[in-house]
Amino acid sequence: MQLSRYHNISPTPPASPGRIRRKPLVETDTVHVEELPDGTQINQYKIGEELGRGSYGLVKVASNEDDHVDYAIKIISKVKMKKRAALTGRRVEMRKLGKVVDPFESIYREIAIMKKLNHKNIVQLIEVLNDTNNDYFYMVYELLSKGAVMPEIPTDNTFSEELSRRYFRDIVLGIEFLHFQGVIHRDIKPANLLLTEDNGIKIADFGVSELFEGSDAFVTKSAGTHYFMAPEAIAPEKAKSQRGKALDIWAMGITLFCFIYGRCPFQDVHIMQLFKKISTEPLRIPDDPYIDPQLEDLLYRLLVKNPSERITISKIKEHPWVTCGNTDLMPTTEDNCTKIVVTDEDITRSVGTLPHLSTLFHAKKMLREKSFRNPYQIGSQR
Predict the structure, then answer these.
(1) What is the distance between the alpha carbons of residues 252 and 75, in angstroms, rounded to a whole number?
(2) Annotated region Disordered: where (predicted)?
């Protein structure tokens, strides 16, 4: 039996109100896998039931027999990533500029970022494994067994204003932290917001997230889930005016609307008609249930069509509905955020390695006859 070698990565700085103390990340470069009568064992992880399916792979429970804690292990197909890169045309476009593009650059960058994101409202990445000789990445996350805050939309299981405010405040702090680190999430929605044991919110799924430098990101491609996309993200003539922070804030507005009403404010079974409604139709607040006028005001400010006029995170934190009329103030940015620097070396070293997969985990057995549709899909929106 092979022994595992562990590396401690970047000790955690002192915790602030927004940050939590965490164990040092573990990067494993030697792995032993064994097929047992009751399942597959990868080092100390015993692989269990399937939790979901993502764009590139499967997510399963991984029980750690050392600390008796369950985690979520995400198995990511490199083949799927290569196909997606080819479809987007980025490789062709960059080749014209004389640059060599690694189709896995985005996931390397995502991993490097997530290894350093340490915040109570962000899902924690525990460990990353990479088999250089086969098709799969493995990412081990903390497991939030309660699942998504609102797994399906539309739904009759709506939230009270009080509960919606509690959840929304957690989202605000998580997004402020991400933006402070130069990260745009780009797919905020209830299905990507996971519940903790004490009913807090953690933001998950950074598959389409983007990095930026400076005060904001200016992105030129669409991403995210159709019902949660901002007007500027779906209008080709405005493609150059997409402000990354404003995209996340719009999606936060749609999410808050879903908490209260159990549906998205703009709906249509036909994508082009949906996009037209998002771009041109005014926001309509239903009469039932009745909501606090301050909440109504916030929804209108979050869902302003013009991104330059949309409310900002700093103003959201001061809004009277969010602060209960200034009786429950939000933490300051200084308390909530500590700057994290992601270097090129971090990206290069963002994954550990595995020996030949033929002697290890038979992932193809798990993936056989499985599709790679988005597990957070709402109806036919995506």
Answers:
(1) 28
(2) 1-22
Domain extent listing, the chain:
6-144+343-367, 161-336
- The residue annotated as part of the active site, out of 131, 135, 170, 187, is 187
Block mean pLDDT (10 aa), the chain, length 382:
34 46 57 76 84 79 90 85 68 50 72 81 87 73 93 96 98 96 92 95 88 76 87 69 88 98 97 95 96 98 96 98 97 88 62 42 42 38 41
Written out in words, the top-level CATH class of the domain with range 161-336 is mainly alpha
Annotated binding site for ATP: 74
pLDDT at 67: 87
- Hey, is 164 helix, strand or coil? helix
Contacts of 235-241 with C-beta under 8 Å, sequence gap 24+, read 235/279, 241/307
How many C-alpha atoms does 11 have within 13 Å on its Cβ side?
2
Cα dist. 5→8, 11, 27, 127, 346 in Å?
A: 10, 18, 8, 13, 19
Q: Which CATH superfamily is domain 6-144+343-367 in?
A: Phosphorylase Kinase; domain 1 (3.30.200.20)
**Tokens read off for 47:** 């692989």
29 as an active site residue: the answer is no
What lies within 8 Å, CB to CB, of 264 at 6+ separation is 153, 154, 227, 228, 254, 257, 258, 378
